[in-house]
Every structure is written in structure tokens, then in C-alpha cells.
Design a protein that fits this description.
The complex is a heterodimer. Chain A is an alpha+beta fold. Chain A is about 20% helix and about 15% strand. Chain A has two domains: about 5-75, Ubiquitin-like (UB roll); about 100-225, 2-Layer Sandwich (Alpha-Beta Plaits), CATH 3.30.70. In chain B, the strands form five sheets. Chain B has a six-stranded antiparallel β-sheet with strand order 3-2-1-14-15-16. Chain B has a three-stranded antiparallel β-sheet with strand order 6-7-8, covered by helices on one side. Chain B is globular. The chains are: A alpha+beta, B alpha+beta.
């Protein structure tokens, strides 16, 4: 398809193909728009709101808004980044995100985005929710303390044709990922380490067992480059 | 229970130690000290919240017990998890871990002596409080302070090169390590190690000189006798990373030797008391906590080992043992001399390891038959450190027991406090200088109560004298700047 049209992202022209969203076009052009629940291989659903941009003066999710010629999109403005920091702070206090002892630290999109946006503290009171750890599977650990409800595992498992993860529950404290088995345990599903869903989690929920901390400091994904650079160099989120 | 006319003195909290602690002294009606207690007043509960976590997370989680010697907890937990994964670690992993550990010994001993203890020794126990700290040391003994800071910095660099960070790294993982040294890291550390060895020798000389000039005072200060315990290598050599447990009574009788630490509970029991969150370990062979308490740490190690396997430190060990007809090696302040000998040994060991090509090897991990119980024991800067875990078939920790160095020394510190109180406080009006004598005794063992108490804190000081009926007789307060003031106070409950 022709690549003739452009929109302005923070004053810089970004080319796009018909049908691309603003976030897809920006990503393809090597321009970073903060995001958590978006993944280039899956359908966007606009739930985390980190990618909220201002389009001709109106707020919209970059991951779900189609690119059209001549749009003027504000992205990394102090106002928008301040709102993103607030969203991040709410995500941090809703779960139990203890980065110092988390094996995903340094390779976690939530942590890297918080660093990128200069989040210095949680601001809000912690919920300290009581969330389970499911270690029943021989190869995979599930630590729901860190879940940000991005639903990427649900989409990936659907692509795997297994539907192991399903979004369920209602409300701020009730919404959660449910394991689709009679017992609710991962061991009682046909989940496999080779599934797409096994490597999709942007935070530290779905983890390969017995390899935690095997990557030393300095060599972890976001040690090598901040998320704004890693995201635009073709690395998967 | 009969009412006795006792007065209570509380030192709360202690200063120039990490972690919250307080001391209470009970005085009879002749103002003689009849009881001394070191209370651990904070609780963090690591043993409990480790439960339910995956075993590979534990070495990184438990090191958060402490910011001074996290490496000790990191390695003790990693050694326990080696057992869980059935690993005999590779030569590269073993030497990288040893390098990390001796870097830790170097920096922690430098911190302990130069930053926290040396102001007491160089300026006097009751000297001007505003001067009696690392800033005063830098002002009046700039070369000593500078070398102390640089020795510590070097130790931290060794830790950074092996663990990834100076504090709270991730180098040791179950079954091995996640990195070895690069050629650049090795060269950078080799460049400075000879200066560090030289300065460590000077530090030993400094303590030796202090003993020579304060022979009587140092010999008697906080004196008590006790059994002692440490790890020793199969050869009997001092080994701070691996070995068997050796324990001897104060008369030299061996209680056990080269004992398998993975069954430590057959040798050591633990008691609890209502007035402290810190447990009271004891040798089971001696009965109970009342009779079986002991001490650990540099003094225990240097006096219990048959030899130190590096030449300069071994020469110093012999001189230490011979000094004052062996009295220095039995003195509480002998901990500092032994500590500096160990610091020299650590520097020498680091040099040897840096010349060993295994430290740049790439065979980092090993595994074997999976087990459900793991025990890791290491000689931390302040003494024997025991980590014990049980892990279920799903890889989650179901039980944890940690006996840290300070806990082993619990009753020993109480004895030292009692000795000091009787030596210096009997019948005296309390002054800041007299109180500092109590803290000097605690600092000889340990500037760090945080791993035993799992606490962090700032250290202003309040001392009260209460009558047996709780009436306030005297109260001295010291603020964060070291300024003391005396005022009246209301009665408080013990």
C-alpha cells in the first residue's frame, strides 16, 4: 500500500498506511508513544490509557485512533506525561509491585515506563491486595500480584487456541485474570511454555520457572536502552 | 514475687549502630547494677513473608534484610538453594562467590572499624560527642579516615563487579552465578589491590598500637568468658565461605569440630524471651539458653582457626594471640583487632582470586538432583549466618529459619553490657560519656542490629533512671547532632 500520507506527531511528520492507528504508525516510524496494553502483534483495546495523546486538542487513545492525513498529535507534552504518571501510580498501588525482589525487574514494561516518565513515588495509598501465586504448573509460575490487566495473555492464549486466560470479575478490586480450568489451577490446563501466551506478559506475572535473575545487571533489556529507545528499535514490548 | 528496690536505666535507642535496640539496666538500692538487657524492639518478619515465594527469588529478597552486609544473606540463601537444586557449583561460580564475599568482608569491616568504632578508640570513650564520629575522624585523623573510606570503596567495587551492584546485587543464583568477571573488571580491581593490602596492614598496626597504649583498659573492658563458634576449612584454616562448624569452650575444650552445618539443629537450639524480638541460640550440649550461650564473629574465628591461609594475616594472628599473654585475644575489644586481621586476610584473598583465571570462566551454573531442604551457612562479617529453607514440589518456600550473626551474639552482648555497667556505672550519676561505654561494648560485636531485628532507624538516645516504683529520677537526652540535655520526665513502664 502506498505510504503517501502523514500526520504530525509533536510537530514531526509521521508517514502512515491506510488502516494504521496513530500508535502503529508512530511505532513503525521509530517514534515512542508510551503504552502498556498495546502489542504490535495483537488487536488494540485501549484499556491502559497510557497512550493517550491530544489530537487537534482532543484526548484520544493512540492505539485505537486511526491515523488520518494532517492530524496534529501532541504526545510527549508535560501535561500528558503528568497524566500518564498518575495512571502509572494508580497501577502500582492497585497491585503488589515490589521491584527490588521481582525477577522481571529491568525487563518489565511497567517499571521501564515509570522510569521513562519520571515517576518518583506511588503518591496514592497502596491497596495491598491479597492475590494468589499459582505455582502448580511444572514450567510456569503465575504471580498475579503484578497483574496490570492488560489482557494480552487472554489474546495470546486465544491465538494459541487454548483460551487458558480469561478476563473475569467486576469492578476496581474484582477484575482479574481467571485460569480457564475446573480447578482454576494452571496445572489443570494444557498450557505450555511454548505457547505465545507464555512470553507475552509485559510485567512479572507469567514467568518461566527456575531462571529468575539469570540475566545480570547491565544486560537486562532496559539496562541496555530505556523503553523509549528499545520500543522504537524493533524490540517487542 | 517479692518487690525489690531496683532502679531501671534505659538506653533507647542505641546510637552508631544500625537497627533499633535499647538497653535497660536494673540497679539495686546501692546503685549497683544487677541486670543488663539488650532489647531488640523492632520486628520485620522476613522468615514469614518468604513463605509462598519461589525459591529462586529468595537470595535477592533476603538480602534486603541489610544494607551493610546484604552479600552475606545473598550468599547464605544461594548456598541453601544450591542444595535445593542439587548443585555442586562450578569452580568459576565458587570463586566469583568467594570474591564477592571477601569484598563484602573488606567493606563491612572497614565500615565497622573506621566509621563506627574507631572514633571511640581514637578520641576516648567519653570524649566530646560532637567529635566522636566519622566527621570528627576526618577532621582530626584525615589520613586514617581517607584510607578507611577507600578500603570500603574498594570492597564495594569488588561486590559491584561480582554481583552487579554495590548494594543488593543479583550475582549468586541457585546453582551458581549469573556473571563472571570481564577482563576489564579484573584489571581494574588488580590495579588497586596492593594499596588496599598495604592500608589494611596499617589498620592492623593501628589497633595493635591502641592495645599497646591502653593495655589495662582494653584488657578489662566488658570482659567475660564464653564458648565460641565458627566455620573452619577441613584443614582447620580460617574460611569465611565454606567449612564445618567448630565450637570450643573458653578453656579450649572442643565441643564439636568439622560438624556438618546442614544439620545445625542437632547442635544449636533457639530460645525466646518476652523482652526481645531477637532469639537466644544455645549449644544443646550445654543444656539451655541460660548455660549454653556462646559468641561468634571475628574474635571467635581468629582464635578458633588453626591458621589463616594468607601469610600477612597469619603473621598478625600469631602476634595477636601472643599479645599480653593471650589476654587481648580474650578481650571484648579484641574483636576489633581480630576484625582488622580478617580485613587484611580478605584483601590478600581478593588478590589471590584476582590472579586465578577461573574468575573469567564462563561455566557459571550447575544442577543435580532436586531436594526439598536447603541449609546455607557462611561466616558473615559479624559471625556465623545460618539460612534454612524447605521448598515444596511446586518450587515455593514453605518454611524459613534464619539465625543471623547478631542473634548468636545476643547473650554475649548482654554479658558485655553487664560487665561495662558494673565497671563504669555502679553508683554513678549518668553522663553521656558513661552511657557511651555501654555502646562501645555493643559496637565491638556489631554495629548492625538490623539483620537481627530487621529494623532501620535513626539513633537519638534517651536514658532514664527510674525508681523501683517507676518514679523518674533522671533523664538525659541526646539528639541526632549528639547534643545532650537533661530534663525531668514522667514515669514510664518498663
Amino acid at each position: 500500500m502506498a505510504n503517501d500520507d502523514t500526520f504530525l506527531l509533536d510537530g514531526v511528520a509521521v508517514p502512515f498506511n491506510t488502516g494504521q492507528t496513530i500508535l502503529q504508525a508512530a511505532h513503525a516510524a521509530g517514534r515512542y508513544i508510551p503504552h502498556l496494553c498495546w502489542h504490535p502483534d495483537y488487536k488494540p483495546h485501549g484499556s491502559c490509557k497510557l497512550c493517550t495523546v491530544k489530537i487537534d486538542g482532543r484526548l484520544a487513545s493512540a492505539c485505537t485512533t486511526p491515523a488520518t492525513p494532517g492530524l496534529r498529535v501532541e504526545n510527549r507534552t508535560p501535561e500528558l506525561d503528568e497524566q500518564r504518571r498518575t495512571l502509572l501510580q494508580m497501577l502500582f498501588v492497585e497491585g503488589n509491585h515490589f521491584c527490588p525482589s521481582c525477577e522481571k525487574s529491568g525487563q518489565c514494561l511497567l517499571q521501564a515506563t515509570a522510569y521513562e516518565l519520571g515517576m518518583m513515588g506511588p503518591h496514592f495509598d497502596h491497596f495491598y491486595p491479597n492475590r494468589p501465586v499459582d505455582a502448580s504448573h511444572p514450567d510456569v509460575l503465575l504471580d498475579f500480584n503484578r497483574c496490570i490487566l492488560c489482557s494480552l495473555c487472554e489474546q495470546a492464549s486465544a491465538r494459541d487456541g487454548k483460551f487458558v486466560f480469561v478476563m473475569g470479575g467486576r469492578g476496581m478490586r474484582g477484575r482479574k485474570v481467571i485460569i480457564n480450568s475446573a480447578t482454576g489451577r494452571l496445572a489443570d490446563t494444557d498450557f505450555s511454555l511454548t505457547d505465545h501466551a507464555a512470553s507475552i506478559c509485559p510485567v512479572g506475572v507469567i514467568l518461566k520457572k527456575r531462571v529468575g535473575f539469570i540475566v545480570p545487571y547491565g544486560q537486562r533489556k532496559y539496562d541496555r536502552a530505556p523503553v523509549s529507545v528499545a520500543d522504537t528499535q524493533g524490540d517487542e514490548p | 514475687m517479692t518487690q525489690t528496690p531496683l532502679k531501671r536505666i534505659a538506653i533507647d535507642p542505641l546510637s552508631r549502630v544500625e537497627g533499633h535496640g535499647k538497653v535497660t539496666l536494673l540497679l539495686d538500692d546501692h546503685d549497683r547494677v544487677v541486670q543488663a538487657r539488650l532489647h531488640i524492639v523492632e520486628f520485620r518478619g522476613f522468615e514469614k513473608f518468604i513463605e509462598g515465594r519461589p525459591y529462586w527469588e529468595v537470595p535477592v529478597m533476603v538480602e534486603r534484610l541489610c544494607g551493610i552486609c546484604p552479600v552475606s544473606h545473598h550468599l547464605a540463601a544461594a548456598k541453601a538453594m544450591d542444595m535445593i537444586v542439587g548443585s555442586q557449583v562450578t569452580p568459576t561460580a565458587m570463586k566469583i562467590r568467594r570474591l564477592m564475599h571477601y569484598g563484602q568482608i573488606l567493606q563491612s569491616h572497614a565500615l565497622h572499624f573506621f566509621y563506627l568504632a574507631s572514633p571511640d578508640l581514637l578520641f576516648g570513650f567519653a570524649s566530646e560527642p560532637a567529635k566522636r564520629n566519622i566527621v570528627g575522624l576526618a577532621a582530626h585523623h584525615p589520613e586514617i579516615a581517607r584510607k578507611g573510606v577507600l578500603i570500603r570503596k574498594y570492597g564495594q567495587e569488588v561486590i559491584r563487579a561480582t554481583a552487579g551492584k554495590r548494594i543488593h546485587g543479583t550475582g549468586a543464583i541457585p546453582g551458581g552465578v549469573n556473571k563472571s568477571l570481564s577482563a576489564d573488571e579484573r584489571a581494574a580491581l588488580l590495579k588497586d589491590i596492593y594499596a588496599i593490602i598495604g592500608w589494611s596492614r596499617e589498620a592492623v598496626e593501628l589497633v595493635k598500637h591502641l592495645f599497646e597504649t591502653h593495655r589495662e583498659q582494653y584488657r578489662e573492658f566488658a570482659h567475660f568468658t564464653a564458648p565460641a563458634m565458627c566455620l573452619v576449612a577441613p584443614s582447620g584454616a580460617l574460611d569465611l565461605y565454606e567449612g564445618g562448624l567448630r565450637a570450643r569452650l573458653s578453656d579450649g575444650t572442643t565441643l564439636f569440630d568439622h560438624a556438618d552445618y546442614t544439620r545445625y539443629w542437632e547442635l544449636i537450639g533457639e530460645d525466646v524471651k518476652p523482652w526481645s524480638y531477637m532469639k537466644f541460640p544455645f549449644f544443646k550440649a550445654l543444656g539451655d539458653a541460660e548455660h549454653g550461650w556462646y559468641r561468634v564473629g571475628p574474635l571467635a574465628r581468629v582464635t578458633l582457626c588453626d591458621f589463616i591461609p594468607t601469610p600477612l594475616a597469619e603473621r598478625e594472628r600469631k602476634e595477636f594471640l601472643a599479645f599480653d599473654d593471650g589476654r587481648a585475644s580474650r578481650a571484648t575489644l579484641g574483636y576489633h583487632w581480630a576484625r582488622m586481621i580478617e580485613m587484611l586476610h580478605a584483601a590478600e584473598t581478593i588478590k589471590e582470586l584476582l590472579h586465578d583465571d577461573d574468575i573469567v570462566g564462563q561455566n557459571l551454573l550447575a544442577s543435580g538432583e532436586r531436594r526439598t531442604r536447603g541449609v546455607g551457612v557462611i561466616e558473615a562479617p559479624r559471625g556465623t549466618l545460618i539460612h534454612h529453607y524447605r521448598v515444596d514440589e511446586n518450587d515455593l518456600v514453605i518454611r524459613a529459619n534464619l539465625i543471623v550473626s547478631t542473634t548468636h551474639n545476643n547473650q554475649a552482648m548482654n554479658e558485655a553490657i553487664l560487665a561495662v555497667a558494673r565497671q563504669y556505672l555502679d553508683g554513678q550519676q549518668i553522663t553521656e560519656g558513661l552511657l557511651n561505654h555501654v555502646e562501645v561494648a555493643i559496637r565491638a560485636f556489631d554495629p548492625c542490629l538490623s539483620c537481627a531485628t530487621h529494623a532501620l532507624g535513626r539513633m537519638p538516645l534517651v536514658v532514664e533512671i527510674l525508681g523501683a516504683d517507676g518514679t523518674a529520677h533522671d533523664r538525659v537526652m541526646r539528639d541526632m547532632r549528639g547534643v545532650c540535655r537533661r530534663d525531668a520526665m514522667k514515669a514510664s513502664q518498663p
